[in-house]
Amino acid sequence: MFNFFGEVKKHTGVKVDEFHIINISNKLLYVEGHKGLVILSSELVAFKVKNGRIEVEGRGLYLKELTENTLKISGDIKRVESF
After folding, report:
1. What's this model's pTM, rounded to 2 decimal places?
2. Three-state DSSP class for 35?
3. Higher model confidence: residue 13 or residue 34?
4. Quick check: 58 and 77 in contact, CB under 8 A?
5. How many domains does the chain have?
6. Range(s) of the domain holding residue 69
7. Tell me, what DSSP letter sits at residue 42?
């Protein structure tokens, strides 16, 4: 499995310890460094990150990919908020 931020760290020496989120056109959310799912529904996906939690709200949300370190959420993303 390709790890974008892991490759950046390996080739540049930049320290990558936390989590990273990329939102692509409010249709795909790519996350590296999650610590587990909390809520999973078609309107709300919540997951743990170091020192908090992220909530993704929208319509037609679904997990496109879930691994130990990464997740991809697809659908009509309306809001992404950290707590």
Report:
1. 0.78
2. coil
3. 34
4. yes
5. 1
6. 4-82
7. S
